[in-house]
Structures are given as C-alpha cells and as structure tokens.
Amino acid sequence: MQEQVLEYFNNYFGQHLNESISDEDIMEAVYDLIGLTEAVLESVGDEWTIEKAREVGRKDKQERKKKYNAMSPAEQKKHDEHWDEVMRDKIEKMSR
User: Fold this and answer.
1) Quick one: residue 13, left, alpha or beta (phi over 0 = left, psi -120 to 50 = alpha)?
2) What pTM was estimated for this model as a whole?
3) N vs C: which end of the chain shows fewer Cβ within 10 Å?
C-alpha cells in the first residue's frame, strides 16, 4: 500500500516527494483523492459504498497478515528485509 501512496503523490506532483512540496500541497492532493474516490463510488451506485470499500481493504490487510504469519521465521525475515530495502529506495528517491 505504501508504494501506491508514493506513486499517487509522485504522479500528482509530477516529481518525487521532496522538501519543496509543502504540507498544504500534500493535503490538497489528499483531498483531491478523497473527492475522486467519492465520485467513483457514487458512479457505481448504492451497492458500493465507502464502508464496503473499507471492508474490502480490511479483508485484504487480514489476508496479507495471514500469509505473513504462515511464513517461517526465515521467510518473514527475508520478506521484511525486502520491504525495508524497498522503503529505503523510496526514501532515497524522495530526498533527491
């Protein structure tokens, strides 16, 4: 999920997040995303509400946690190291 968030901001601003982007600009991007989300949910009708969208997100998170917990300690360590490296790369790119 973190990667999707960074990708959204990078696309929104046309560059990697960096110190030149103000907190206000970031919040504007967040509000724009919320507005877009609400518009999409409205367009698909009453069957799909924000609460249902959140429920789907929670189920996805539970499934990922379940898969992680089923891993051996060695697999968990490898998984964690991989995502630590991904995050370090993202932070390094943001600081450029």
Assistant:
1) alpha
2) 0.47
3) C
- Give the pLDDT confidence of 35-55 residue by residue, as tens digits: 888 888 777 766 667 777 778
* Residue keyed to tokens 């518009």: 39
- Residue written as token pair 């990922």: 64
* CA pair distance 45, 75, nearest whole angstrom: 42
Report pLDDT digits (tens) over 52-85: 777 888 888 888 889 889 999 999 888 888 887 8
The count of domains in the chain is: 1
Two structure tokens written together for 80: 């964690």
For the chain, state the CA radius of gyration: 17
Domain limits for position 67:
2-94
